[in-house]
Amino acid sequence: MTRYFNTTGPCDPAHHYYLPTADRMPDIQIYLDRQQYFVLHAPRQTGKTTAMRTLAQDLRRRGVAACWATLEGCEGIEDFERAEPLWLRALHRASEDLPAAMQAPVPTTFDAGPAGNRLSDYLRAWAASISVPLVLLLDEADLVTGHAMVSLLRQLRDGFLDRGVGKFPTSVALIGRRAMPDYLVQAKDGRFVNPGSPFNLMAAWVTIRSYNSQEVAELLGQHTAETGQRFEPDAIAEIARVTDGQPYLVNALADLCATQLVPDRTQAITRANVDAARAQLIRARTTHLDGLVARLKDPRVARIVQAVMVGDKPFSIEYSGDDFQYVVDLGLIRLGPDGAEPANPLYREVIARQLAFNVEETVPKPI
Asked: E strand or H helix at 148, and its extent?
């Protein structure tokens, strides 16, 4: 089967056009070599999950017990006593990708343990049962909130000083859309917990950048190599410009062009086709763009985004504030040479349409 442009879920190089994610982020191996803990944050659909699953596979080939697990099932559960059993079961399920001798213990034996210690006890028992380094890559970690997040980090901290083969995970990555400062906010009342321990165990916050123009051309070139269908140079340039290399948007525009607008592989894809695909993508309100629009209902986000869109003349945006960084981490805006701006031209249009939606819908039709 011919590969295609992926717009849903992690990339599989066997089925999707693909560029190695590791090329778009700092070298993580240094943190693993130093047995450090770190945060990987980036906006939705930029390649976080693909990168970490690939990393886990690479580490397993080198004999490391590397486990990628998602904490998505804990979303909205702020009570750590309810969240802890879910964490253990998520780790146990994910460990089935490991050789049998490296898999996690059965979690039910830890359910009766003291609340607030069950995760750390489980990880100690798991590490003690194997003779190789244990590395945890915890995806969707930022969906854990409130007291559950505090407990998660405290339990990681409790084993951090004793980490090592046979003792505790040597490295842990928290993977999500938010950088570390936003993990510090208690969800119930917005108060900051102590920003020192247990939050100072993270050695770094790293992110994944978008494609550059050369990488956009390389990705589109894979389609040409496999099907013979060309993207005209101005079409490639326009995809790079309007998306600013955001991976989902690049793939979505290219896929619309190749599968719907120009299915004839003997016909080249033109700039006009890209323009039509952009309009169609915005009208279709894909899950990705719907998620973007939903974020605009968050007061923290709306205040910043509206100021960016209309011009921050009163200088109301606190660029050093946590709310600004939060919106940047979500991938909605960026800090450009002239101040804050939408992350890319396509997002600018989507945001403008949404902010003006009520006005647009009530404008009388021309007679």
From this structure: helix 146-160
The CATH number of the domain where 235 resides is what? 1.10.8
Same domain, 186 and 228: no
| 49-105 pLDDT, tens digit each | 999 999 999 999 999 999 999 999 888 888 889 999 999 999 999 999 999 999 999
- Assign 313 to helix, strand or coil: coil
The residues near 273 (Cβ < 8 Å, ≥ 6 apart) are: 235, 257, 261, 262
Query: CA 358 to CA 360: how far, in whole Å?
Result: 5
Q: Give the number of other CB atoms < 10 A from CB of residue 227.
A: 14
- Residue range 42-62, pLDDT digits in tens: 888 888 999 999 999 999 999
How confident is the model at residue 357, as a pLDDT? 56
Q: Which helix (H) or strand (E) holds 221?
A: helix 213-227
The residue ranges of DSSP E strands in 235-367, in sequence order, are 333-336, 339-342
Q: Is residue 6 part of a domain?
A: no
Shared domain check, 259 and 305: no
Residue 3 maps to a domain: no
If you ran DSSP here, which 8-state letter would residue 3 be given? -
Q: What is the pLDDT of residue 315?
A: 63
User: Is residue 367 a part of any domain in this protein?
Assistant: no
Enter the pTM of the model.
0.84
185 shares a domain with 242: no
Residues 6+ apart with CB under 8 A from 44: 177, 248, 288, 291, 330, 331
Domain span including residue 267: 213-284
- Count the domains in the chain: 3
Tokens for 290, please give them: 């719907």
Tokens of 48: 């976080």
